[in-house]
Amino acid sequence: MSEVPEVRPPLVTPVRVVIAVCLIAPFVAMLWVGSYAKTDPAFIGIPFFYWYQMLWVLISTALTMTAYQLWQRDQRARASEKGGASQ
């Protein structure tokens, strides 16, 4: 009797690349200080330097939520593939 080798889904998928981009984008945006180290344009009297960073707090929250939802969907799909293959 020969065993059938287990077929595993690839580790790097387009969904996982999107998840990585969602999680890395805020770090890149905040570490690239030269892109926002200025005072103009001001928004309701708040210098650009400050409101840009506060905007990234909201963007980071949305991107993290998106990454989490994509991860949950990816894990459910992998679990159903694994369960479907063994039945």
Structure description:
This protein is mainly α and 87 residues long. It is built from two helices and no strands. The longest helix is centred in the last third of the chain and has 39 residues, at 48-86. The radius of gyration is 21 Å and the shape is elongated. The two termini are 19 Å apart.
Q: Report the sheet with the most strands, covering strand number, pairing sense and barrel closure.
A: none
Structure annotation, total helices: 2
CA(first)-CA(last) distance: 19 Å
Number of strands: 0
Structural class: mainly alpha
Structural shape: elongated
Q: How much helix, percentage-wise, in residues? A: 55-70%
Query: What fraction of the residues are assigned to beta strands by DSSP?
Result: under 5%
Secondary-structure blueprint of this entry?
Elements: H1 14-31, H2 48-86
Helix pairs in contact: 1-2
